[in-house]
Amino acid sequence: MPLIARIKLFLRDLPSIYKRGLMVALDLLLIPLALWAALSLRYGEWFTDFNRAALVFAGIVAFTIPVFIKLGLYRAVMRFLGWKAMEQIGTGVAGSTLILLTILLLHPQAELPRSTFVIYGLVLFVLVGGSRFLARRLLGASSGGKGRERVAVYGAGASGRQVVGMLRQGMDYEPVVFLDDAETLEGREIDGLRVIAPRKSIGKKDLTPLLQRLGVRSILLSVPSASASRRREILNFLEPLPFHVRTVPGIEDILSGKATLDQVREVDIEDLLGREPVPPRPELLGKCITGKAVLVTGAGGSIGSELCRQVVEQGARRLILFEVSEYGLYQIDQELRALPVVANGEVELIAALGSVLDERRLQRLFEHFAIDTIYHAAAYKHVPLVEHNPIEGLSNNALGTLIAARVAARHGVRHFVLISTDKAVRPTNVMGASKRLAEMALQALQPEHPETTFAMVRFGNVLGSSGSVVPLFRRQIADGGPVTVTHPEITRYFMTIPEAVQLVIQAGSMAEGGDVFVLDMGEPVKIDHLARRMVHLSGLEIRDEEYPDGDIEITYTGLRPGEKLYEELLIGEAVNGTDHPRIMRASEDCLPWRAFDKGLRRLEKDMERHDLPAVRTHLGELVSGYQPHERIEDHCWKD
């Protein structure tokens, strides 16, 4: 390692008390130097009569250092020096200047020109301020740029400048240029970096060779205050460029402690698929939660855990976490117990292991805790897995829902909200059929138990869930491919987990009894298009017949058992709007309890005998539109 780099590391690693000592020692030299320079400039020749001015020199040093200490000039970290430090330096220099003027007035024997204090103040500001910023420059620069990835930072605002400052302290990235759409910044320099307005001045065609000449390998997106549509617009512009596009966290994540400013990560798919959020209605969010006892089944899952977070946020009196997975329950329990409202006892947290199929376990919970609201998220949701394990899927999803709903109704629960799916509409798989059966169970129960308001909320895929294609695609891209897509035309609806849960809670509050709510999922997304965008934003090219030298191949594996090309949200066309623009109320046909119970009992007998052909037949009689896969996929049945 070069000598200068070793010195930098030595100074950085010094204990803070020694660093402060070095700063004080430096000022002990700079203060008299400034006074000597001021006197020399005032007389127009080198000042040498130190005997006459000895008390002045001693006094200015003796009184200025305590002023600097009081103002905190020695508490600042050199590497992160900013304009606040300049204000402190200016204040300290002004104080030292007044001290000099006072000494000159009280010590006329020195016979020094009183106007010296003005020149002294200017010189001292330059010396003290300059020494601090020189130290910042030397210590802030990374010790050796070899191996650091050269990056362009998109966004020259406050966040972008902070990102550049943080990256310069690290060993991984070297910012070399700003990209910003503000035409007024084009060609200017900020923090030593040139600013380019790519879309206004040069466009995509000329931007690529320019960035390549600078050695740029990645573009870091730092526009935390931009709207969803604005971020999507920027990403659409950057996608065709041959650079890895990544992002830095928003200010909300930084303030909440979820991330640090220099934590570079892949572009959130929400930025590609998301839309402008609709502000929630507080009265709907809190209606079934605030001050109440709430139970969440499947509390450790993707949807269930977010439900738990928002239930705590809305001020529930008590939250019961019900989960069959010990690990899942442990994770969400530990996360919530770290929240202040839980830690200080404002929200009582109960972690309960158990299955929704265990009626006695549910019975005990309802007997011990007066539960007002249930959000039923417990379900097997992976289509191929349920297709291979149909009896287990039907039991958990349909019978488990019925058991939980009947126990809830017997114990006077006011609100029961089922998390349903778009796959329940004209299902081609057991998972979708089991969820439609769960919906029908609640619809049939509603007239039998009018004191409990049952509601179902139906939506599509959520980004970031355990079954999402997004993390799968990311892993495949990181491994060099291939990226696997089942079919080039397959489409899906997508929504972020927080938005979906927020809408679920609001929909449940609007329920009147037996309602089927459908969330507005926006436009369907072609999965093949999504995969290609993720490859491009990784700075890679698709390898195909047209580009045989590309980086990542996309392979089509064929539709899996029970999988549809297109998902639907409604069975019929009868749908009505609600007071919320993203929530609709569907009118779906349902069976009366007696007919439904009779059909379900017959289905249960088939399940007990493991008679899968009969299960499929009777499931089709119960669930309208069920069109099963051409063959039975259950592993035991195949053997």
UniProtKB/TrEMBL annotation:
Listed SUPFAM superfamilies: NAD(P)-binding Rossmann-fold domains, S-adenosyl-L-methionine-dependent methyltransferases
Key words of the record: Membrane, Transmembrane, Transmembrane helix
Bilayer-crossing regions: 21-41, 53-73, 85-105, 117-135
Pfam families: Polysacc_synt_2
Keyword Nucleotidyltransferase included in the entry's annotation: no
Keyword Transport: no
Location of the Ketoreductase domain: 292-465
InterPro entries: KR_dom (IPR057326), NAD(P)-bd_dom_sf (IPR036291), Polysac_CapD-like (IPR003869), Polysaccharide_Synthase-Rel (IPR051203), SAM-dependent_MTases_sf (IPR029063)
Family: Belongs to the polysaccharide synthase family. Belongs to the short-chain dehydrogenases/reductases (SDR) family.
Name this polypeptide is given: Nucleoside-diphosphate sugar epimerase/dehydratase
Organism: Guyparkeria halophila
High-level lineage: Bacteria, Pseudomonadati, Pseudomonadota, Gammaproteobacteria, Chromatiales
